[in-house]
Write a structure and sequence with these properties.
alpha+beta; 4 domains
Length: 475
C-alpha cells in the first residue's frame, strides 16, 4: 500500500509487482473472512487485476492494449451478469451482514453499468473514456477490498484489546464491551470511506480542485454589520458545540459506569458532579464555538450586560429556577431517589433539571415542580439522612384487658414482621384511655421506604390476627 509513496516514479512493471504483492495477502485473508459463496467474486477480482496489469504493460502497443481492454471489460460484464442472475449474493446473505451484501450488490450493479458504457465507448472509438471508466471501477474495487481486509484485521485487534488488560479490566468495558466494539468498528469504517474517497479523487486528479472549491465555498463571507459570517465559520460553530456535547456525554458515561464505582459517595453526589460537569463543558464549548464563529470574545461582557438587563425584566422566573437548581445540586437538600412531600403530595425525585424537578408519585403520575418552589417553600424529605421511616398503628382495646399483655403482644408481633427493622426496636405507648376504650399506639420502623404503605398494612393485619387469637376485644 505504501509502495507508490516510497517509489512514486517506479516503472510500470514494478508498480504491477507491488500491486501483486499487496493483492496476495489480501486474497489469503479474504478467503478466511468471506463466505464460500463469495469466493467467485474474489477470484474474479484477481483475474481483473492480472488483465489490467497486462493491459498497462502493453500500453506501448495500442492494438494489444485495446485487446486486453476488451477482454477485461467483456469478462467483467459477463461475470457481473452471471453473479446477479445466479443468486450467489442472496445465498451469502444468511452468513454475512446484510449491509455487506447490500454493498456488494450495489457495486455489482454499478460495475454492470460502467462496463457496458466502456464497451460501447470502445466500439465507438472513445478509447480514453472507455479506459477511464474501466480503470476507475477496477481500482476502486481493489482499494475497497484492501480496506475491508484492513478493517477486519483492526477489528480483531479491537476485540483482543477489549478483553485483555488494561482495557479489559475496566468496569466500563466489561459492562459495555459489545457497544464499544460496535462503535469503534463504525469509526474505522467511516475513516476507511474517507481515505478511499481521498485516494480515488486523487487518482482522478479531482482532489485538489475539489478542496479548492470547497475552501472557496466555506470562506465566502456575508457581512452582518461589524460581524462577518461564512459557511465555514457556521460549520465550525456547530461542530465545536457538537463536540462539546459529545465530550460531556463521554465523560459522564465514564464517570457513572466506572469511576464512581470505586468511591463511596453519598447518594445524589454522583448526579450532582455529572450535572455540573455537563454544564461546565457546555459553557466552555459554547465560548469556544463563539470564537470559532468569529465573534470577539472581549465583547461578550457587553453582551452579557445587555442580556442581564433583559433577564431582569423578562426572565426572572427562569433565572430563579436555574439558580435554585444549582443550589439543589451544591447544597443537596434534595437528591435523586429521595421521597419528598410537597403540599400533601408524596413522590420520589427522579430528575433535577435546569428549570424543574420531576417527582413520580405512588399513583404513577409525574409532577413537574419548579426548582424555585423547592427552595422557597417547605418540603418534607422522608429520606434525607437515612432510608428508615416510622410506622404507627393505633389499637383501641376494651377496658379490662391486661395492658402489659397487650403491650408485649404488640411488640412481639411487630418484631416478627418481615418488613419491620430490628433497630430501632418497636415501641408501644398508651396514648389515651376512657371508660369505653384504651388506645395503644405501636411505633415501628422500616428501611423499605418504597414499600412503606404495604409494610404498614401487613403489620396492621398481623396485629389484628394476634389480638384475635388472644381473645382481646377491640373497641
Amino acid at each position: 500500500m505504501f509502495g507508490p509513496v516510497l517509489y512514486s516514479e517506479a516503472p510500470r512493471w514494478i508498480q504491477a509487482l507491488i500491486g501483486a504483492v499487496v493483492l496476495l495477502p489480501t486474497v489469503l485473508i479474504l478467503r478466511r473472512l468471506l463466505e464460500r459463496n463469495l469466493f467467485p467474486i474474489l477470484y474474479a477480482l484477481v483475474g481483473l487485476y492480472l488483465v489490467t496489469q497486462l493491459r498497462l504493460l502493453a500500453a506501448s502497443v495500442p492494438s494489444l492494449a485495446r485487446f486486453f481492454f476488451l477482454v477485461e471489460t467483456c469478462g467483467g460484464l459477463l461475470f457481473l451478469i452471471w453473479l446477479l442472475r445466479s443468486g450467489k449474493l442472496a445465498t451469502a446473505k444468511a452468513g454475512t451482514p446484510d449491509r455487506f451484501n447490500r454493498a456488494i450488490l450495489l457495486i455489482a450493479k454499478i460495475g454492470l453499468v460502467l462496463f457496458s458504457i466502456a464497451i460501447l465507448a470502445n466500439i465507438l472509438g472513445y478509447i480514453s473514456l472507455a479506459n477511464l471508466l474501466a480503470i476507475v471501477f477496477v481500482r476502486g474495487v481493489f482499494l475497497a477490498a484492501i480496506f475491508y481486509v484492513a478493517i477486519r484485521v483492526l477489528d480483531g485487534f479491537v476485540v483482543i484489546a477489549l478483553r485483555v488488560r488494561p482495557l479489559g479490566a475496566l468496569r466500563v468495558v466489561q459492562l459495555h464491551r459489545q457497544m464499544l466494539h460496535r462503535r469503534t468498528c463504525r469509526a474505522l469504517e467511516f475513516l476507511a470511506v474517507l481515505f478511499w474517497l481521498n485516494l480515488m479523487l486523487n487518482f482522478l486528479g479531482l482532489l485538489n480542485p475539489a478542496l479548492a472549491k470547497i475552501g472557496d465555498l466555506l470562506n465566502a463571507k456575508v457581512g452582518m454589520g461589524s460581524l462577518e459570517l461564512s459557511l465555514g465559520r457556521l460549520l465550525a460553530f456547530g461542530i465545536t458545540a457538537w463536540a462539546a456535547f459529545l465530550v460531556s456525554k463521554f465523560l459522564r458515561f465514564l464517570l457513572e459506569e466506572d469511576v464512581y464505582h470505586h468511591f463511596r459517595l453519598e447518594r445524589g453526589l454522583p448526579y450532582a458532579i455529572s450535572t455540573m460537569l455537563h454544564y461546565s463543558i457546555l459553557l466552555v464549548g459554547f465560548v469556544v464555538a463563539l470564537g470559532a464563529l468569529g465573534i470577539d470574545l472581549t465583547k461578550i461582557t457587553i453582551l452579557a450586560g445587555a442580556f442581564s438587563v433583559g433577564v431582569g425584566f423578562g426572565l426572572q422566573n427562569v433565572i430563579n429556577n436555574f439558580v435554585s437548581g444549582l443550589i439543589l445540586l451544591f447544597e443537596r437538600p434534595i437528591k435523586i431517589g429521595d421521597v419528598v412531600e410537597i403540599e400533601g403530595t408524596v413522590g420520589e425525585v427522579r430528575r433535577i433539571g435546569i428549570r424543574a424537578c420531576v417527582i413520580r408519585t405512588g399513583q404513577g403520575s409525574e409532577i413537574i415542580v419548579p426548582n424555585g418552589a423547592l427552595i422557597s417553600n417547605q418540603v418534607t424529605n422522608w429520606t434525607f439522612s437515612d432510608r428508615a421511616r416510622a410506622i404507627e398503628v393505633s389499637v383501641n382495646v376494651l377496658p379490662g384487658a391486661n395492658s402489659e399483655r397487650v403491650v408485649e403482644l404488640l411488640k412481639t408481633t411487630a418484631t416478627s414482621e418481615p418488613g419491620v427493622a430490628n433497630e430501632p426496636a418497636p415501641q408501644v405507648y398508651v396514648v389515651n384511655f376512657s371508660a369505653g376504650a384504651v388506645t395503644f399506639q405501636l411505633r415501628a420502623w422500616t428501611d423499605r421506604y418504597q414499600d412503606w404503605a404495604r409494610v404498614r398494612s401487613d403489620l396492621a393485619v398481623a396485629v389484628n390476627s394476634a389480638l384475635t387469637q388472644e381473645r382481646i376485644a377491640i373497641a
